Amino acid sequence: MQNRILIFFGFILLLFISPIVVATLDSNATLLASTNTSTEQELVPTTQQEDLAIAEKIESNQLVYSTNSDTRDTPLDNTKEIVPRNALILFTHSHEAFKPIVKSKDGKTAVYDSTSNIMSFNETIKNYFTLNSITADFLEFNTMDEMAKTNRKFSEAYNIVRPALESQINNKKYDIIIDLHRDSANREITTLNYQNETYGKLYFVVGEEHSNYLANKSYAQKMSTQLNELIPGISRGVISKKGDHVDGVYNQDLAENMVLIELGGIDNTEEEINRTLSVLSKAISTILQETLPTENVN
């Protein structure tokens, strides 16, 4: 009789606690599924996550090429002393624009724009240069705004920016001076597909109508070679210009370490230009660290 009573109460107790056990198991399963889903979502790259990754790598002195490329996250050679360098960047044709960027930001198709243009990459350039121990200064002069104010011709752009450029480099010594432009060629010419990612190709222009142009040309060729060692085919090489219908000097007579770079083309996207800028900053850093004296130049 006593055994029957115990079995009866045991059965009642089992009926009472079984819903609790089931609910607990369901809750744990839901939590596990939620955790797995959350982990999967965290692995999906987003703009915010990429920005955070860039910020983290600024602290660790690493370069981010892109989100998927095998060449990303390449650190500077920590076995050598890394000497901070100074760069000056100007935009002689300051309103040169990329059609996809203008379309997404302003809703229009244009290759020149007063707001969404090549100057919009200032912050990106500064970040990538910082990753590679280069301090980037930007010439505070909007050439095409000045041209519009004074009713000057497009062909006069280099003459218009020259006084401001000359004053800047007389007041501070720079390890490299870059005049950054956007090429007018179409996507087929200006785009590189490398390891399942696309980049805006670039090339260098050297004016041969001044006495010391060979120094500028040698410097540009060295940089072009370094770029192609990092990402094969990203540089289209060095083009020399002289004669009618070209400037022929491009203010390069002011400094042997001045280069004119055509970055991407009218059809390249913001992401493609960002990837190219990351590679360019690494190439410049490598050259500056290898070729300049170890003492910092202020």
From TrEMBL:
It comes from the Bacteria. InterPro entries: Spore_II_P. Pfam families: SpoIIP. This is Stage II sporulation protein P. It comes from Ureibacillus chungkukjangi.
